[in-house]
UniProtKB/TrEMBL annotation:
It comes from the Bacteria. The keyword Cell division applies. GO terms for biological process: division septum assembly. One of its GO terms (cellular component) is cytosol. The keyword Phosphoprotein does not apply. It comes from Brevibacillus fulvus. Residues 22-195 form the EngB-type G domain. The gene is engB. Necessary for normal cell division and for the maintenance of normal septation. This is Probable GTP-binding protein EngB. Its cofactor is Mg(2+). One of its GO terms (molecular function) is GTP binding.
Amino acid sequence: MKVTSAEFVISAVGPKQYPTDGLPEIALVGRSNVGKSSLINKMLNRKALARTSSRPGKTQTLNYFRINHRLYFVDFPGYGYAKVAKSVKQQWGKMIESYLTDRKELRLVVQLVDIRHAPSKDDIAMYDWCKQIGLTTVVVATKGDKIARGRWQQHLKVIREQLQLRETDSMLVFSSETGQGRDELWGTILKYINT
Ligand code: GTP
Ligand code: MG
């Protein structure tokens, strides 16, 4: 998709701050440091609209980005980062849980996993949970540039098996460095916002 406008809208800490214009929403979930904010920037052709950091735990709220006045990307706080205080984690947990369960505008969950590693317990729990509540997921294996292309399939197989990827869900390789997977991911997203 040609991105003609992309703007940061709000860092929301709860439902009262979510947009009210009814545009479809795409949620970006995954463990801390997996590359959620970097992926958003690459999808939008922006260098630093979503803040990224080599220090995990950068994103701590639900950050809304409006694209072409047509849809929102919702950047999530990363899970699985030990150094975040327990009280803060519980607070995010509740916010994320109620967003995923109740948010009518949510059309698709983009779940990021690092292509180099087998999914973590948290990755599996998040995926299972999305399936239980009937959400459609596209699994994005990030940091594709970090391993040779010839080894992608072998790594995808491990991810597919460990997550027990459902037949209705798809998976693709992405790199925020090279743009690998960008067009394919836009294709998937457009399919779900047009229905
Ligand atoms: P939190 O906000 O902490 O949950 O992290 P995040 O998932 O938003 O990760 P972020 O986009 O901030 O990226 C974390 C680190 O990984 C940064 O140093 C990025 O430059 C790096 N990174 C992200 N995507 C890629 C990628 O595709 N390839 C490479 N080589 N590095 C990447
Ligand atoms: Mg982030």
